[in-house]
Amino acid sequence: MLSVKLSIMAGIDMIMIPYTYTEFIDDLSTLVKNGTIPMSRINDAVRRILRVKFTMGLFENPYADNSLAGELGKQEHRDLAREAVRKSLVLLKNGKPGEKPLLPLPKNAGTILVAGSHAHNLGYQCGGWTITWQGVGGNNLTTGTTILEGIKRAVGHGTDVVYSENPDAGFMRQNEARFDYAVVVVGEPPYAESFGDNHNLTIPAPGPSVIRDVCGSVRCAVVLVSGRPLVVEPYMGAIDALVAAWLPGTEGQGVSDLLFGDYGFTGKLARTWFRSVEQLPMNVGDARYDPLFPFGFGLQTRA
Fold this sequence. Notes:
Blueprint: H1 2-9, H2 21-33, H3 39-56, H4 75-88, E1 90-94, E2 111-115, H5 122-126, H6 147-154, E3 160-164, H7 169-175, E4 181-187, H8 207-215, E5 220-225, E6 241-246, H9 253-259
Parallel strand pairs: 2-3, 2-4, 4-5, 5-6
Antiparallel strand pairs: 1-6
Helix pairs in contact: 4-9, 6-9
């Protein structure tokens, strides 16, 4: 009840509570009836809400105009979304010390491995607040191109793309001589709001083991699909190239556009990338500012 009082008196006019709204209504009604929250504060909130609705014309035309619904998902829109993906990706590492850069990847390799939970999953690419509120995994609820599909379209006709979602150490021992390189796509499952709260900010399993097993056997580019920076420092020694792909949405081919050099990496970090959660909060200008990657960091490649 205290949180209800504090939020309303702080000036929040509209409350969104999906599940326990009846309890909220009961608490708010009690607080108003006993005078803890004055009725004038409720009138103030309702007045502002109604003013916005009247301004928008919702009482005259309460329903959306569906006449343009057929325009959704047109190719020109997908092309624009794909361009947004290309411009938002951030290249964090490209080559181990003393070695040549891994990216851009050669299109005409013999056999390449694509691995990881996020390589072929549109729902994971989209994240929360998209297909559903909390998001959902899978490829059957929306239309688009997964990162795996983008890779298959990008490589030459003679290149064999082998996909294994969770290759273990035994698989890699048996096949490491077979692969020219690997692309590992891992990250977070979808979430929204407090459902994504995470005090560790680690890459969910089996992502870490896939990185270790694959990148310990063959040169690899790791693509991280997430809504925020995650702990990656423990894996940096094994990774040849690291790409922060954020949540690229339905147009996974925007990722392959950069991996294979059709376009160059230009994205920069919009926030500091920490080494460990013990450093948080961390901001530019802090006395002990020691990030893994600083604000504004981002390697560039040429198309």
